[in-house]
């Protein structure tokens, strides 16, 4: 059987880089995507040397509407079949909605809603043809929480949570598993980029996870066909306290009541 290939977005740091390392350690080839080409090249060189896998890179900004097509066109031109998709790239706004320029909000939506959806749509036909695929979409523990004032983030991550379950219902009969990975506070550059490092550092240590732990649990979940993964015991307790009905019940009802399920 030929080696399967994983496309990982936001792969230059944090959870994305951890996914790249984990998948390489499992023998998967990689196509790594992020804005920072030099970081991608450094990581790719390390993974090639350590795990002897094919590791291609493609620098792209997924807030650009042209990026998803450019990524999949590049993969096709290089003869790369995408068997695994990790939609990891993301950010969070840090100013009030009404005070944020529309271009900034549009870029946030493009990055975490449209690009996630479009990349999934572009790789699914090949996965269906080959009868196997895995998609991990990075949602957040925030998807289970009440909306945050002035932030699109909770709404965006709720969308990712819901669309992942919907896609899993549709695609699982074709050998494709889709999982929404919903981490809580994770040690990465996220809070540095958002300018919230001081506030984050004041949170209790038991709330935090390492990226490798998040990735390990998320990958096990998608391989086992779990549509939702909340990694970490504390996060599981928090999510259970916030969501109105258990995931299994909602998943069952969504499948049973879907008018298109037999289409």
From TrEMBL:
Pfam families: adh_short
Gene Ontology molecular function terms on file: oxidoreductase activity
Database matches in SUPFAM superfamilies: NAD(P)-binding Rossmann-fold domains
EC number: 1.-.-.-
Keyword terms: Oxidoreductase
Domain of life: Bacteria
InterPro entries: KR_dom (IPR057326), NAD(P)-bd_dom_sf (IPR036291), SDR_fam (IPR002347)
Top enzyme category: oxidoreductase
Ketoreductase domain boundaries: 4-169
Alphabetized PANTHER family for the sequence: NADP-DEPENDENT 3-HYDROXY ACID DEHYDROGENASE YDFG, VERY-LONG-CHAIN 3-OXOOACYL-COA REDUCTASE
Similarity annotation: Belongs to the short-chain dehydrogenases/reductases (SDR) family.
Name of the protein: SDR family oxidoreductase
Natural source organism: Nocardia aurea
